[in-house]
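Minutes, methods subgroup
Present: GH (chair), OT, SY

1. OT presented the first of two proteins processed in the latest run. Sequence and structure tokens recorded below as shown on screen.
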Amino acid sequence: MPKLFSFIRKYCIKVDYSKYSLDELLEAKKSIDKVKYAENFNALMIEFSRRETEINTLKSEAKSAIAAKQVVLKTTCTAERILGLFLFGLIFGFPVGFSIDPNTLDGSDVFVSLLLMSMSGGLLFHSFNSGWTYGGNDNLDIAEDPIMFTVAQLIYTWLFGFSSIAFILASFF
């Protein structure tokens, strides 16, 4: 009896791919046995050809999204922007760092300054590479709110400059 069901399943079940979403069609294409279910595979390929305009639309949307992201990354990663931010961190972070008396610093200050450096440096690196950063209750995107995005980067560079000096003072003096 099981051979009969296997025969019926192998040769008689027709799949209606017109009801499938595009993601389901792609999954079916990856997992279908082309030899064992040749008729269903042919039906699947016919459905793909019917949906060619939908697929091309999705491809063009993806390409335009990638192009827009590249423009944002070019804006966030310009040498002038990075240099300006780090100069801001040096100019405004170092005086605060140098106002610390090195005799009052101990081992925990090394840890805290390294923690601040890694946190602010990580946030800076992320914002340069992605074009967005964390801010308050929402993400700040350079394309949507360039002023607040820049303010967040300025705060990160100030913390990075201040914690760098605190680390140097705590470690070597």
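2. SY then presented the second protein from the same run.
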Amino acid sequence: MAAGEALGAARYFRRWYKADVKGRPCEDFCVLQHSNRRVGGTICVITLAEAHPLLQRGKTITGVNYQISPNCSRLQNKVSGKSKRPSTEGYIAVVLPKFEESKSITQGLLTPEEYKEVLLKRQHSSSGS
């Protein structure tokens, strides 16, 4: 990650975390919430958290299937706006929730400090301490 990318993400995005997504241990997501709350809602970029197993074990993601159904492919979605890349190698989704939904978007998500505590607990339980 380039230093400029990290500074851009820190400046424009607030990080939130969801641990053990869908009950799968250690499969954590990071939600980057853009600081510029638009009239229609707030832009959220969903990525794999830094501690996700795919990013820890030297694995390479070779492809992502965006075909939702035979008649719906998310590759057809148009994305516009400034080209500021978040601090990860890529993203899973870019979401623009409705304004009413954006108020509660962070309910159930962890702050970076809370997520660090989750990671420490995992480390202690795996080391037998």
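Chair's summary of item 2: Strands lie at 13-18, 29-34, 44-48, 67-69, 72-73, 93-95.
Next meeting: continue with the remaining queue.
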